[in-house]
C-alpha cells in the first residue's frame, strides 16, 4: 500500500520498450535531428514515497531515503564492508563522487560497521581523509590516482580470506564487471550511466550548431553502442543502487535489470555542515563586496567548463544585466570560462575554487543557486547543499533533477538547456525578489532535511546492506524500526 504526500506523484508512466528505443536511435541516426533524439531519451520521472509501506523492501520503487529508519538506535548487527572506489578524498580538495563515498562510509563506520576501502594511491604530499577508527584504507602501490582494478581485487581477496566481507560496495564501475560476476553480495552505486551521457552529448551539440555535425553523428553512434554494452554487462552486478529516481527507471525499463535488484537511494549531504545561517551569509556578502541594495544575488559553483552549461549562463546573464544593473552573480570554481566571466564587469564576482569549509557561507550568501549543467549524470551534490542551506534552485530540466529534487514547483525554476529559456527564468527570479525566493528556500530546506541528508542516505544504505547479508532484514518494518 502506498500513501500520497505533498511531494508524491502517481506511478510512473509506461515507457517504450528497449527494442523500440534502440531501433529509433540506431536506424535513423544519420538523419534524425538532435531535438528528436532528446525526445526519445526523455524519461518521465517519479518520486514515489510512502511512510506507510510494509513488505519486502526489494519490491519498493520509491527511494529508500523516504523511509523513517531510526538513526538513534544502534545497528542490529555490525557489518564488514569492502568498498571499491577509484579515488578517495584528500584533505585539500575532495571531488564529488569521492565526497559521496566519504560521507556515506564515514557515517556507517561511526555506527560501528567496519569499512575497508580499496582505492588508488594518494597524490604526492597529500593525505587521505579518514575520520573514523573503523575505516581502513587499502591504497594501491602504483602511481597516484592511478586505478588498477586487478591490483585492488588481489588486495580484496587477501583481506576476504582473513575474514569474509558481509557486503561489497562499488562506486560506479570501480569493480570491473568481469570480477563483479564472482561477488554475489555486491552492490554498485551508479553515479552516471551511458544513456545519460548520450543525452549530454546531444545537449552540448545543440548549443554549438543548429545542424547535425558529422562528427556528432559518429559520436552519438558510439554512445548508443556504449548503452548496448552496458545493458549486456550490467547483469553481472547483483544489486544496483540508483542515486536518482530517473536512473532507477532507466535500469528497470531500458537496461532490463530485474526490479528486485534495483534500489533507489538518493544522494545525501552532511546536514551538520550545510544549513541555514543568515549571519554567515550576510558576512560573506560583505566580505566579497556585494552592495546592500543588490536586488538579488545568483550563485553558481563547480568546474567552469562547457558541459556544465557555462556558455548558457554567460550569454543569459550578459543580457540580463543590460536591464537590471543591481543583480549580481557569484561564481565559485575554476575553469576556462573564468576569464570570460571576468569580462562581464562588476556584476560578476569570481571567487576561484572554494574549500568545502567555505561553501556553507557561499550558499547562504546567494538568493538562488544556478545549475545549468548539460550532463544529466547522477544527482549533483551542489544542488542538495544549496537546498539544505535554504536556497532555492534554478536548474536544467533533466529527469534526475525533475524526479528527485525539483518535485515541487515551489522549490525553484527549471529550464530547457538554451539561452532563451535560462534568460526567461532569470527574469522571473528577479521579478519575484528576495522575499519570495526566501519562501521558496524554506520549502527547499524542509524537503531536503526530510530526504536528502547524509543520515537518510546512510541509514538507507545500512538497511540495504543488512538485507544483502541476511534476507530477514529485507522486510519492513521490523521490531527495531
Automatic annotation (TrEMBL):
Top-level lineage group: Eukaryota
Pfam families registered for this protein in UniProt: Glyco_transf_4, Glycos_transf_1
Leader sequence segment: none
Keyword Membrane included in the entry's annotation: yes
TM regions (residue ranges): 21-41
Keyword Secreted: no
Keywords: Glycosyltransferase, Membrane, Transferase, Transmembrane, Transmembrane helix
Gene Ontology molecular function: any one: glycosyltransferase activity
Residues covered by the Glycosyltransferase subfamily 4-like N-terminal domain: 94-272
InterPro entries per record: Glyco_trans_1 (IPR001296), Glyco_trans_4-like_N (IPR028098)
Residue ranges occupied by any Glycosyl transferase family domain in the UniProt entry: 288-444
PANTHER family cross-referenced by the UniProt entry: GLYCOSYLTRANSFERASE (PTHR46686)
Protein name: Glycosyltransferase subfamily 4-like N-terminal domain-containing protein
Organism: Asparagus officinalis (Garden asparagus)
